[in-house]
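User: quick one - fold this with magnesium ion bound?
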Amino acid sequence: MPVVRADHLYKVFGRQSKVAVERLADGSHRDTIADLDVTAAVIDVSFEVQPGEIFVVMGLSGSGKSTLIRMLNGLLDSTAGSVEIDGVDITTLSQKNLLKLRGEKISMVFQHFALLPHRTVLENAAYGLELRGLPRAERFAKAKETLALVGLEGWEDKLPEQLSGGMQQRVGLARALAADTDIILMDEAFSALDPLIRRDMQTQLLELQATLGKTIIFITHDLNEAMRLGDRICVLRDGRVAQIGEASEILNAPANEYVERFVEDVDRSRVLTAAEALADAAVDADAPQVSSDTLVADLYTSVSTSDRLRVVSAEGDVLGMVTRESVLASLVRDENEEAAK
Ligand SMILES: Nc1ncnc2c1ncn2[C@@H]1O[C@H](COP(=O)(O)OP(=O)(O)OP(=O)(O)O)[C@@H](O)[C@H]1O
Ligand SMILES: [Mg+2]
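Assistant: Sure. Structure tokens for the protein plus magnesium ion:
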């Protein structure tokens, strides 16, 4: 069962929102319903997020990302459509039950950290648990544990202003982890950070995720970040879904010209892995082996010293071979493959 499910979800701001939904459902672009004096932020969005998945929602400014994520935890009502969390339609819940569900199942990490300035790092990390009424000793113990997970051991007694941006965002992440919810929503959580720190945070999130197995919905306007983090990516355009797929699908088979233009500048070698660069060649049991999730960028040097590598998955299955030619070929999108779809 999916953990999060959006079904024909709409959010239209303005008095004539219901009329607007009818016209949008007939396929109207949001700009052609300007006469209704409404803003259509999210239009007919449907997807399912599976347990343990990192689902990235990517789109330009104004494409509806924040509106969408705020409907997923019930901070905003939907104009039409439904949101299910663990099979429960939250659009039908009373305010009290919605608050309860949110406290138990969903945490959120924001772009601007949203830390309380006069509280210590430890108190900030424990804040979600305080709201839930956990006794002091218990919530501090839990917060101390998750601060250590994000590398902030020893910083518990500092104030947020004594920390760098990257460290403050780690506190935000620790707070979400301390709440111990299955679902974490992250809205542009790394967008305010310097590029190098941002990359570190991405790495740390992936490492944490490998052991914690949360269900994460991560919002970004950065395609490279989307490709790096997302098990699947949902590309939003003007409130509608332009495409949903794995990074390699979006790169190799963009659903339309919009997505195609978007992916033009992506460094394919940093998205595609050995598993997606396989050669049409018989398996050579004597060739050196390489893990299937090795980035193509990191295969360059290995295939130039020994020109064939055996690709092995994390489960130990031999997937095939990569060669110098197949590695180079993976960097060019195969137009035929796309046409065949
Ligand atoms: N409360 C509101 N009332 C009216 N219009 C709104 C409201 N909230 C958002 N909008 C509009 O809905 C559209 C989508 O906004 P949203 O904030 O969801 O975009 P976004 O993709 O998160 O953008 P950004 O990348 O800049 O954060 C925008 O046109 C915005 O102006
Ligand atoms: Mg936003």
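One thing worth noting: The chain is about 35% helix and 20% strand.
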